[in-house]
Amino acid sequence: MKRPSNDDLSIEISFLQGLRSRMPHDPELLKLLGDDYTRAGRWKEGLEIDLELGHLLPRDSMVQYNLACSLSLLGRLKESAKALARAIQFGYSDLDYLRRDPDLENLRKSMEFSPVEALLKATVKR
Questions:
Q1: Residue 42 contacts by C-beta under 8 Å, 6 or more apart in sequence?
Q2: Which of 78, 87, 103, 104 would be a feasible disulfide site paired with 64, CB 3.0-4.6 Å?
């Protein structure tokens, strides 16, 4: 799938923001908008969306994973590790991607990562 250009991404964000004014708590819309914010480097706005999604869908493993990514990008590593542990608790199991996801690079470089990685390894073995 071709990634949108910066101009296309800005247009898409504007469009989704307009939809959000009419459907402020639509999870699918929020997921798209949060992803676009992150791809545009608008990490604080992406985090706001991920936090809202965390309230709307607290047991969704991908919502918790994306929250961990946003927190990692912003250097909030303890919170990121906790969100990632929740993602694993709720069913996230892709260890290979976890080890290479660029959004989690800050977390992987920290001492907070080892316990989360061990949790995932233990969970996958079950």
A1: 13
A2: 87
